[in-house]
């Protein structure tokens, strides 16, 4: 696998909060599938009663003949860093139904979101709007199926993903969200050449990474400290849109590769595109982010004139979605240089756009002044 070094010169250290881990078991019922019962083990961060925080959801698919107990270290790491982790207990039998398990993963994302409004739930008031699909081995392949068939997930991470029936390799062609595909170089159960590599190659994500953990095996991959180190900044980047986390993630890739602990490939068609090149200028921002259905985009101009100034919104394929003429902008403060305009989540033809990451650019006289990412999450 070809190694691509981003060439970033500075590693930005990010601290990880350490939360206590709470746990409970709950069975959810999917009425759309003959009242299918989905027993789920849920781990969540315990925060102060007086400072209720909201945490992203991670839905994790287990491997064949495995269950949540096989991923205890994994769960503790992610929960202590500020994530809710749910392990469905379905399809733990000898002959699992991959399609049903994939549907369980996407269903649980929605079910846990609803727990945010349930005053009797331990998750009341602490569930963020972001959900991530993850899985190991069979569960990794099912995570691919789930992310390909639904739009509830904002990113996907798989560990030694095994091809499934229906095929996760074929389904990967329908995935555009950011992804990490972890493989183990010593994996004799789901060899990368016939499982993870073809899945990765078919992914249509504009931001995706293939990471081979050198010397690791099929079962050890989910307790590998290198994987933990890389997951945290990646998820923080997707959650916040803060490119400092992206820098940390890419620099860690480079450092581990230089130490001969991993080999990797990174595809970044967003940042590599001159038209969608992001920068760290603080002259444009939006709130709320994530949002549904609308968000207000604010920006600062170096001149009081707003003639020939516009905000252009793109999807991650680089396709123009909407142009907002800044002649319609309003004063965001007493300064004429601070302006804002609202985007209602519709394209040029007034059609509601899909959930996903979008790039918005401030342009003046056709020249891009600043760019940012925002997340529409329904």
Walkthrough of the structure:
It is a single chain. The chain is an alpha/beta fold. It has helices spanning 72-80, 98-115, 138-149, 168-171, 196-202, 225-240, 243-258, and strands at residues 20-30, 36-46, 55-61, 84-88, 127-136, 155-159, 179-184, 207-213, 262-268, 284-287, 295-300, 309-315, 320-325, 330-331, 338-343, 356-364, 367-376. It has 2 domains: 20-268, Alpha/Beta hydrolase fold, catalytic domain (Rossmann fold, 3-Layer(aba) Sandwich); 284-376, Immunoglobulin-like. The chain has 7 helices and 17 strands. Helix 6 (225-240) packs antiparallel against helix 7.
List keywords for this structure.
about 375 residues; alpha/beta; Rossmann fold; Immunoglobulin-like; disordered N terminus
Instruction: Name the CATH homologous superfamily of the largest domain.
Output: Alpha/Beta hydrolase fold, catalytic domain
| Sheet of most strands | 9 strands, mixed
Mind telling me the CATH class of the largest domain? Alpha Beta
| Rg, nearest Å | 21 Å
Strand line-up in the sheet with most strands: 1-2-4-3-5-6-7-8-9
Number of helices: 7
Q: Mind sketching the topology for me?
A:
Blueprint: E1 20-30, E2 36-46, E3 55-61, H1 72-80, E4 84-88, H2 98-115, E5 127-136, H3 138-149, E6 155-159, H4 168-171, E7 179-184, H5 196-202, E8 207-213, H6 225-240, H7 243-258, E9 262-268, E10 284-287, E11 295-300, E12 309-315, E13 320-325, E14 330-331, E15 338-343, E16 356-364, E17 367-376
Parallel strand pairs: 3-4, 3-5, 5-6, 6-7, 7-8
Antiparallel strand pairs: 1-2, 2-4, 8-9, 10-11, 11-15, 12-13, 12-16, 14-15, 16-17
């Amino acid at each position: 696998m070809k190694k691509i070094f981003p060439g970033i010169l500075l590693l930005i250290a990010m601290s990880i909060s350490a939360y206590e881990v709470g746990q409970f078991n709950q069975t959810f019922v999917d009425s759309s599938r003959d009242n299918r019962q989905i027993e789920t083990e849920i781990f969540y961060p315990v925060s102060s009663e007086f400072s209720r925080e909201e945490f992203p959801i991670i839905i994790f698919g287990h491997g064949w003949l495995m269950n949540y107990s096989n991923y205890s270290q994994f769960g503790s790491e992610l929960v202590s860093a500020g994530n809710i982790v749910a392990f469905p207990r379905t399809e733990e039998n000898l002959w699992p139904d991959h399609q049903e398990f994939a549907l369980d993963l996407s269903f649980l994302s929605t079910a846990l979101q609803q727990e945010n409004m349930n005053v009797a739930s331990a998750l009341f008031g602490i569930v963020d709007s972001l959900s991530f699909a993850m899985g190991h081995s069979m569960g990794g392949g099912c995570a691919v199926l789930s992310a390909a068939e639904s739009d509830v997930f904002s990113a996907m991470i798989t560990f030694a993903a095994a091809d499934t029936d229906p095929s996760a390799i074929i389904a990967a062609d329908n995935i555009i969200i950011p992804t990490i595909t972890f493989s183990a170089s010593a994996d004799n159960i789901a060899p990368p050449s016939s499982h993870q590599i073809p899945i990765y190659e078919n992914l249509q994500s504009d931001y995706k990474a293939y990471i081979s953990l050198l010397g690791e095996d099929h079962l050890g991959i989910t307790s590998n400290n290198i994987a933990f180190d890389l997951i945290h900044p990646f998820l923080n980047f997707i959650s916040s849109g803060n490119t400092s986390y992206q820098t940390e993630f890419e620099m860690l890739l480079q450092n581990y590769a230089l130490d001969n602990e991993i080999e990797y490939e990174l595809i970044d068609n967003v940042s590599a595109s001159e038209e969608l090149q992001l920068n760290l200028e603080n002259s444009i921002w939006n709130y709320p982010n994530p949002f549904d259905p609308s968000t207000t985009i604010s920006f600062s101009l170096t001149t009081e004139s707003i003639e020939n100034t516009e905000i252009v919104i793109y999807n991650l394929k680089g396709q123009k979605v909407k142009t907002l003429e800044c002649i319609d902008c309003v004063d965001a403060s007493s300064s004429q240089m601070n302006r804002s305009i609202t985007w209602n989540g519709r394209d040029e033809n007034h059609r509601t756009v899909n959930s996903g990451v979008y790039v918005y650019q401030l342009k003046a006289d056709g020249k891009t002044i600043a760019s940012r990412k925002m997340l529409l999450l329904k």
